[in-house]
Amino acid sequence: MNSDILFKKILSKKAKIGVIGLGYVGLPLAILFATKGYDTVGFLRDKIKAKSLNEGKNHLLDDTLNEPLKNVLDNQKLKVVTIDENGLDDQDVIIICVPTPVTHGKQPDLSDLQAVRDKLSMIDVTNKLIINESTVAPFTTRELLGTLKGSYFLACSPERIDPGNKTKTIDAIPKVIGGIDKDSLLLGKTLYEQILQQEVIGMSSLEAAEMTKMLENTYRAVNIALMNEFALLAEKCGIDILEIIKGAKSKWSFHAHYPGVGVGGHCIPVDPYYILELARVRGVNMHVVEDGLKQNEKMPYHVYKKVKVLYKKNMKVLVYGLTYKKDVFDLRESPVVTLCNLLKQKNIEFVVYDPLVSDEIITDLGFVPSPLKAVDLFIVGTDHSVLSTDYPKAVTQDTIIIDGRNFFGVKTGKHVYGIGRTLL
Ligand code: SAJ
After folding, report:
1. Which stretches within 238-374 are classed as H helix?
2. Which atom of ligand 1 lies closest to the CA of 271?
3. Phi, psi at residue 369, to the nearest 5°?
4. Is 80 exceeded by the pLDDT of residue 63?
């Protein structure tokens, strides 16, 4: 295989870019390549989503993407098609950005990635550069994508999108990349250097790149778990965990994380299960990771126990915020959904309000949507930025607050019961 031709195409922006999967990762990436001048085709499964994207409708509800999306559609640098339509074999570079969730049994679910592999195995990928951005455990890229037809280049560069982060946008996040061989690494590194303002760090192998992503997100999950565990002790001691974290932050080596109702999203509560599976296969016991994940998964129950103590029959109860994190319209693995299902199971009547989630979706989840109104018990599930102007519509001086995200800095309503802190 000849890397020179592809190098020249990348440097002259003549390389045709295919991005498979247009979610939180693929859509900003496809728009970025197109904005930088590459003819880009976005591939996804859903015909309706493809049509609405081609009409400039951004299904992620990330308003920062609307204008750049419109621009690259207008100048025809970006086109969106379904993966069943032809076109994959026209691409010089194919970047895979499909979800890698876990099953209900917390086992890796690689079905989307395997479906892409099956598609790619139907074309001759000779001289193409295939890049896997989907989060996987070490050896997965090699095993799943290393035996396609033809002689091609293969790299792995795990995505690091931070949904909802308006400053750390996709072009502002450093990237790591590993290749199956030197040419693949160099091609991939050169490609990303054409579009990113940040460093592109070459790793020694595909596996080193895969493991980097595993470490960074498992580190975050375990550190959040540590804060959750300290919060439980702080509650028993009448100590304010936020004061303690603030004090600890004065030490240069302390990287703050915060306790809360739990850990959601498609990454942090999920990725560590991929490394646990690899550790199991390789006979390594990672009990720190296991216990950390369990601690995080206990937090919705911890908040439920607070409700149980404070709830009295016929109390008006409102859960504010359902999404897994503030200002992001995403319910995947949301700990607040877990909490609401618990309240339902225990016959505690409540209504739900989330400024980003429609009444229809709330109803589909089996909960009762409601506008903001004065309530006896106000439960913060997600600390959306608008909470600061929303809460007075529901919190009176007699309202008890259970603050799942430690949003309230001062006593508000009758009392504020936070995670690791109480404002009486
Ligand atoms: N959370 C806490 N305490 C914290 C931080 C977060 O309880 O101190 C909770 C959040 O409320 C949320 C969950 O954890 O429910 C995950 O939050 P997150 O912002 O860490 O996770 P994601 O999935 O939105 O994105 C993270 C990002 N990592 C960082 O911000 C460092 C992103 O950069 C990664 O690329 C992404 O995971 C990913 O793809 O892995």
Report:
1. 241-248, 271-281, 287-310, 335-345, 359-364
2. 40
3. -75, 155
4. no
Cα distance between residue 114 and residue 105, in whole Å: 19
In this prediction the pTM is 0.94
The proportion of the chain whose per-residue pLDDT surpasses 90, expressed as a percent, equals 90
Atom of ligand 1 nearest to the CA of 173: 33
**Protein residue closest via CA to atom 27 of ligand 1:** 162
97 belongs to the catalytic site: no
Distance 170 CA to ligand 1 centre (A): 15
pLDDT tens readout for residues 183-207: 999 999 999 999 999 999 999 999 9
On the CB side of 183, CA atoms within 13 Å amount to 15
Q: Is the CB of 142 under 6 A from ligand 1?
A: no
Q: What is the pLDDT of residues 236-263, one digit of tens each?
A: 999 999 999 999 999 999 999 999 999 9
Cβ–ligand 1 contact at 162 (below 6 Å): yes
For residue 270 and ligand 1, the question of a CB distance below 6 A is answered with no
